[in-house]
């Protein structure tokens, strides 16, 4: 069986097997989830082994007729834009099972099944090369997430689950109509019905139609990201979701939106994107600052992290709609970064919540005395999120800001304040929770982080440092695809990113120092 | 005058399905009369009759026109026959244990299902409006009795009477419409009307005729504003009957409407009759979905959702072309699976059938009876049109044809109302999985092998059509093309 299909279907097959398994102990159920998702991760490393550097187009391409009379194919492929997002998905899923190993929750079997189904849907959305196939996976992931929030969530879970579902479905159904219209126009021009994304890129649209379609697609993805002012579902969903749900939601699912911008909105509607880029950039910058300010005043740790997501994903959107090579590469990297650091933060908030059953900042203080190892991990995750040089967040934000400065200097000036605000609210969080005297007697005897939680955190920290000190491992693989994307979106500027920025990019990675020095 | 012989040589083969069903129905009644203690055998016997009918379709497939060109057997009528048989089989499977539990099992029940199916087959195959009305009346009489089959239940009797009175009214409208059509065009046969429309202009009389016909058929389809009977009747009818009633008669009426619209095709660009249909469609989608939100009774909620679903199907009917007919054919099959499946799960609830079946009755069912919960959830996902279910791909087909025919505005309204519908379908899932029943108030469910088998068919069908829709689309598309070429 081809590699991508194997990775795609293995989780759902594991879920079906589990569904038919007779009653077993919780450990077997969780072990099965961990084992199968770890197997998927190991298999997905095969993508890197077979990866051809320097190729811009889709790799590992698979294509079979699905609904041939309409030109719908079961088409899979992976390129530099989706590569790291797929690996992020397969990487985070086993960590969820690992980190929640000791957590007691009701209906563990259904819990594991929901996450495995979700994994298939998320991988599928990233690797589908057919618009309808993408749409199917894009919606399929909603159902398990709805159940995860609604069944295993907190006190206000029903409201959050339904709000999450309705927001997302409202956007995506309008996108479905736009897809139909786009395909129909393409059929008119070529005479061959096709839903393949590559065939649709060349569709010529009247300006008005292009604007409408642009907004239909953008609305769907902007809700998912979420872009201000469509973000209101996010804090509710995050706060109510169980830890694993929050990690997947923030780590992967939000990236469906930013990925959708890159894969569909920019190349399908280049003129409309250029025309309306400023609107999206303004909203992104508002999101950066607004998210940060609201995060600052949150009394609840999880809500704080949730609003920080609004802020951080604002950077990604800014980078995408700045439409420069550097900014887009920075955006993709920042998507991965956010998955790692915010995933880690949610995981750690979950760890402490399991022990103390409160997430209010006011209930903590001086936790570093009782949970020193936990504090170390938390501080690393916070610093990565803040963008400390040497860790991953810095690289992503720097590339985005540097790349966007070419085209939107004013926006960058405002967005840069988000970096400072992030430092303020996150470090404030650290100070309040971890340092100072122990104010709450109940915090005296909290057990430190457990082995399974350490085992889940260590890989995350490794990648935070790796991206931080040697981002070229990651940038190198996405570069040809982004260059290709630029030729589709803005043909004039694509070939030559300004020499100065190319230099900066090279200078960022220590291994290329000699090369950079040579240029100097 | 050229007299065609009244009976073609193969006429027996052509109406073999109808013959088997009619005789099978009589056999069931007689069997129950002579062996009243062998009620156990009734449902298997009825299944045998339906399966035998399906088998006769495969074996003696005989395309062509029969009875002086008034009866058409073609690929599309076979697809609709299969839909009717599927609906009937699912209804029998769900009915058996339900009727036994309620103590009202009777040979006549299954016989009426079989005869009703004969009526629907006549509606889908008749090329003459009188034949359509004849089929419709055979069907309606069966429905009157089936709805009131709970003889001792006041709600059931009330529902039956309501359906009877309103149905009689609607038939009157249809007959008036046909009479005016006959007066204007000189024929009640679809092909002859088509020939007339091709060479003549419309008169005001025809507009009146069309409005009358649409009112009557609108009643049978439960299109808004002719819908208010539907929730009451579904609520009162025995639950498996309600499921069958919400699907099969609508499918038969739709195919008859396709023939009418196709016959009128030459004049439709010149008159704005179809904007009337568009109004009915939009109104149904809005009223159905909006009112369903406030329903707590599952059967009433499904009734309003059914009103909305006919609205979706009418979108495809706005322009009759091969794709739109195929879309309607596919949608009715999907709708049969998901809606009868949903009513089927409701029919498993053990409670006084006079009381409403509210959402509270299914609270926590998803973890208590996993398969029932899963099946109902799948039906709900399919009804709300979420992938990877059949409901998604069928609705996708509808909207695809709408866009291709240029009905973008109606399609946008359809999409917007579907967003609304997601709310109340998901509320069922919420009750299934996220709501704990108050202690000691769990509603029990009972199901034997028949109902479980029916649910398996429904769930498997929903998933198979949802994941591999291509063969069905191919068959429906070809059938529709052949039908419209004639």
Structure description:
The complex is a heterodimer of chains A (520) and B (486). By secondary structure, chain A is mainly alpha-helical. Chain A has a domain at 276-520. Helices cover 75% and strands 3% of the residues of chain A. Chain A is built from 24 helices and 2 strands. Chain A has a two-stranded antiparallel sheet. In chain A, helix 3 (80-99) packs antiparallel against helix 4 (108-127), helix 3 packs antiparallel against helix 11 (243-253) and helix 6 runs antiparallel to helix 7 (157-190). Chain A is globular and about 75 Å long. Chain B has 486 residues and is mainly α. Chain B has one domain (11-485). Chain B has helices spanning 11-14, 16-34, 42-59, 75-102, 107-125, 129-147, 154-185, 190-199, 204-221, 229-236, 239-245, 248-263, 273-293, 298-317, 322-347, 365-368, 370-383, 390-404, 408-434, 449-467, 470-485, and strands spanning 64-66, 71-73. Chain B has a two-stranded antiparallel sheet with strand order 1-2. In chain B, a hairpin with a 4-residue loop joins strand 1 (64-66) and strand 2. The two termini of chain B are 24 Å apart. The model of chain B has no long low-confidence stretch (mean pLDDT 90). Classes of the chains: A mainly alpha (520), B mainly alpha (486).
């Amino acid at each position: 069986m081809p590699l991508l299909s194997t990775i795609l279907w293995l989780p759902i097959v594991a879920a079906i097997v589990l569904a038919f398994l007779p009653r077993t102990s919780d450990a077997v159920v969780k072990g099965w989830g961990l084992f199968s998702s770890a197997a998927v991760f190991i298999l997905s490393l095969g993508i890197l082994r077979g990866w051809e550097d320097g190729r811009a187009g889709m790799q590992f391409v698979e294509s079979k007729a699905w609904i041939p009379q309409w030109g719908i194919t079961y088409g899979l492929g992976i390129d530099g834009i989706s590569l790291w997002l797929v690996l992020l998905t397969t990487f985070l899923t086993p960590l969820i099972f690992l980190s929640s190993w000791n957590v007691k929750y009701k209906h563990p079997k259904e819990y594991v099944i929901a996450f495995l189904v979700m994994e298939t849907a998320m991988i599928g959305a990233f690797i589908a090369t057919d618009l309808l196939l993408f749409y199917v996976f894009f919606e399929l992931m909603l159902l398990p997430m709805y159940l995860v929030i609604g069944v295993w969530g907190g006190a206000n879970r029903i409201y959050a689950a339904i709000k999450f579902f309705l927001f997302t479905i409202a956007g995506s159904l309008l996108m479905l109509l736009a897809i139909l219209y786009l395909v129909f126009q393409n059929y008119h021009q070529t005479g061959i019905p096709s839903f393949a994304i590559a065939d649709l890129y060349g569709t010529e649209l009247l300006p008005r139609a292009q604007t409408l379609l642009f907004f239909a697609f953008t609305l769907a993805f902007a809700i998912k990201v979420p872009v201000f002012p469509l973000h209101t579902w996010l804090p509710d969903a995050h706060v109510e979701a169980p830890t694993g749900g929050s990690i997947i939601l923030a780590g992967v699912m939000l990236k469906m939106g930013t990925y959708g911008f890159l894969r569909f909105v920019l190349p399908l509607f280049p003129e409309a994107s250029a025309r309306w880029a400023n609107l999206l950039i303004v909203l992104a910058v508002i999101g950066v600052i607004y998210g940060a300010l609201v995060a600052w005043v949150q009394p609840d740790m999880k809500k704080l992290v949730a609003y920080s997501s609004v802020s951080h994903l604002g950077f990604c959107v800014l980078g995408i709609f700045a439409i420069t090579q550097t900014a887009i590469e920075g955006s993709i990297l920042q998507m991965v970064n956010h998955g790692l650091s915010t995933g880690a933060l949610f995981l750690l908030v979950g760890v402490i919540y399991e022990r103390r059953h409160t997430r209010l900042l006011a209930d903590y203080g001086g936790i570093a005395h009782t949970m020193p190892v936990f504090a170390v991990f938390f501080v690393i995750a916070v610093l990565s999120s803040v963008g400390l040089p040497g860790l991953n967040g810095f690289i992503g934000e720097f590339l985005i800001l540097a790349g966007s400065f070419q085209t939107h200097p004013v926006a960058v000036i405002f967005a840069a304040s988000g970096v400072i605000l992030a430092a303020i609210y996150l470090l404030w969080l650290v100070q309040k929770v971890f340092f100072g005297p122990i104010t709450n007697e109940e915090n005296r005897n909290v057990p430190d982080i457990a082995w399974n939680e350490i085992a889940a955190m260590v890989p995350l920290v490794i990648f935070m440092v790796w991206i931080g000190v040697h981002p070229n491992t990651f940038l190198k693989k996405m570069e040809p695809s982004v260059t290709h994307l630029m030729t589709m979106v803005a043909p004039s500027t694509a070939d030559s990113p300004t020499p100065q920025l190319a230099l900066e990019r090279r200078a960022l990675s220590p291994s290329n120092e000699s090369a950079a020095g040579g240029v100097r | 005058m050229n007299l065609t012989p009244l009976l073609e040589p193969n006429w027996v083969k052509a109406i073999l399905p109808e013959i088997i069903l009619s005789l099978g129905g009589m056999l069931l009644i007689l069997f129950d009369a002579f062996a009243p203690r062998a009620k156990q055998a009734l449902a298997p016997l009825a299944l045998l009759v339906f399966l035998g009918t399906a088998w006769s379709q495969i074996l003696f497939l005989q395309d062509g026109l029969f009875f002086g060109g008034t009866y058409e057997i073609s690929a599309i009528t076979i697809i609709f026959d299969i839909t009717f048989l599927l609906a009937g089989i699912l209804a029998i499977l769900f009915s058996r244990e339900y009727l036994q539990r309620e103590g009202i099992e009777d040979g006549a029940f299954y016989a009426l299902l079989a005869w009703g199916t004969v009526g629907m087959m006549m509606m889908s195959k008749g090329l003459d409006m009188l034949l359509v009305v004849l089929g419709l009346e055979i069907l309606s009489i069966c429905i009157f009795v089936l709805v009131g089959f709970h003889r001792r239940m006041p709600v059931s009797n009330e529902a039956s009477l309501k359906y009877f009175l309103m149905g009689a009214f609607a038939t009157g409208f249809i007959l008036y419409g046909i009479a005016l059509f006959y007066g204007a065009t000189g024929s009640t046969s679809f092909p002859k009307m088509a020939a007339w429309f091709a060479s003549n202009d419309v008169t005001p009389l025809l507009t009146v005729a069309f409005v009358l016909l649409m009112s009557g058929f609108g009643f049978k389809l439960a299109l808004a504003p002719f819908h208010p009977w539907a929730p009451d009747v579904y609520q009162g009818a025995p639950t498996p009957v309600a499921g069958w009633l919400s699907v099969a008669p609508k499918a038969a009426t739709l195919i008859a409407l396709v023939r009418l619209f196709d016959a009128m095709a030459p004049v439709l660009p010149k008159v704005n009759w179809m904007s009337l249909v568009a109004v009915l469609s939009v109104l149904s989608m809005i009223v159905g979905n909006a009112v369903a939100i406030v329903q707590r009774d599952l059967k009433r909620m499904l009734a309003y959702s059914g009103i909305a679903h006919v609205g979706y199907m009418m979108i495809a009917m706005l322009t009759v072309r091969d794709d739109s007919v195929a879309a309607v054919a596919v949608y009715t099959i999907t709708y049969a699976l998901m809606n009868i499946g949903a009513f089927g799960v409701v029919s498993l609830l053990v409670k006084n059938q006079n009381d409403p079946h509210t959402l509270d009755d299914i609270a926590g069912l998803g973890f208590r009876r996993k398969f029932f919960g899963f099946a109902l959830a799948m039906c709900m996902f399919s009804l709300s049109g979420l992938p990877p279910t059949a409901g998604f791909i069928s609705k996708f087909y509808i909207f695809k044809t709408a866009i291709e025919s240029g009905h973008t505005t109606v399609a946008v309204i359809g999409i917007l109302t579907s967003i609304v519908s997601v709310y109340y379908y998901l509320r069922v899932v919420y009750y299934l999985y996220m709501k704990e029943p108050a202690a000691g108030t769990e509603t029990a469910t009972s199901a034997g092998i028949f109902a479980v088998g029916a649910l398996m068919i429904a769930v498997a069908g929903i998933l198979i059509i949802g994941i591999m829709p291509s063969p069905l689309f191919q068959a429906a598309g070809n059938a529709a093309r052949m039908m419209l070429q004639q």
